Amino acid sequence: MPAATTMAHVSKAKMLLYRQSQAIAFAEELKALSVGAALHRGNRLVGLNAYLDNDGVLRTRGRLHSIDTAKDAIILAPEYRITNLIVRSFHEKYHHLAHEMAINDIKASFYISRLRELYKSCSSQTTPDGTDSEGENRNLPDTVYLHRHRLFWPVIGERRQAQGEEMHFEIAHSLDTSSCIMCLSNFMALRGTPKEIFSDNGTNFSATEKAVREELKNIEHDKITITFDGIKWRFNPPGAPHMGGAWERLVRATKGILKNICTNYSFNDEGLRNALMEAQFIINSRPLTFVSLDTEDDAALTPNHLLLGSANGYKPLPKEGMNLHRRWIETQCFGDRFWQRWIKEYAPVLTRRTKWFEKVPPITIGSIVVIVDELLPRNLWLKGRVIETMMAKDGQVRRVTIKT
Prior knowledge:
There is one protein chain. The chain has 404 residues and is of the alpha+beta class. Among the domains are: 7-126, no CATH class; 368-403, no CATH class. The protein contains eleven helices and eleven strands. The strands form four sheets. A four-stranded mixed β-sheet has the order 1-2-3-4. It has a three-stranded antiparallel β-sheet with strand order 9-10-11, with no helix packed on it. A hairpin with a 5-residue loop joins strand 10 (383-391) and strand 11. The longest helix has 27 residues, at 324-350. It is elongated and about 85 Å long. The N and C termini lie far apart (81 Å).
């Protein structure tokens, strides 16, 4: 009876394939490195700080090697079959969507020259219509007025946290208040208690908000006591769905992913949750910063870096013999480096605008306005008079009260 295949067998098989491919593509480099010689100045790998690991696999030593945050990338040539299969596997992992996410994930494990060119060729091979299906998952939402909660979470003690527009899904079995409360409770059990919640004016949200106020923070539901303490709930103005654009845009991207993953699929509860978790992982793997193919550059930051510690959830084991104090020091170094990158690479992106470059005079009390109602023809839209304005910190009016 044949022995069962284990992860150790799979790992050895992968290393064998890597070595075979590298033996053909980098014969000269392997010969030099195997005897401890340096690569000559004009060699194509001279800038990669290449070395042979314990398995005889050619890798490039990155700048994060000293703090042991991940394994060094394996060097592969783009023209070989094994490289093509690896890239195609990542393409399929992300369901032929979210190309920048897939490229960022590949870059975390492999160094492949002309990666974008190779990925594009794989994309045309596997996408049904042969076109670029990247869509809009790659880009961050355009904003005119950036709310502070889009950038930072609270600072607790010495622990610094940053918010990167992560997605978390909970399945509500109905649209009543009870289901909304249970979804919020489930979220808190996994992610912690939020300080502030932003939502539209759905009736279930309004009723739940009343339930989580300070005087009603202990709720009896199905003989379970749920505690909501100190949560502030902020509602977007009615008739202003664009103020929820930061999350609505990601919901739209999620629907696109589900459509591609499960075309014409009839879900049960278990299947729907699994599909949502898959979509959630893909959305949270999206790069928040530019995906560079330079081996000296770090992988792009993603929401999963905040949730899981890395884009793909990989967490390296500590080195053998490393004591807890040394491990703690390395963790602090990693945290400091991540924070520096967050401020340097991600924060400036949020300040850029693609439209509305010039300020306009703010709307004033007494102005006559037309109220857009997408459910009615334009000639039936109501007119109204502004009776109250609320000015933002930048001097712009974005909320008004209208009398019709």
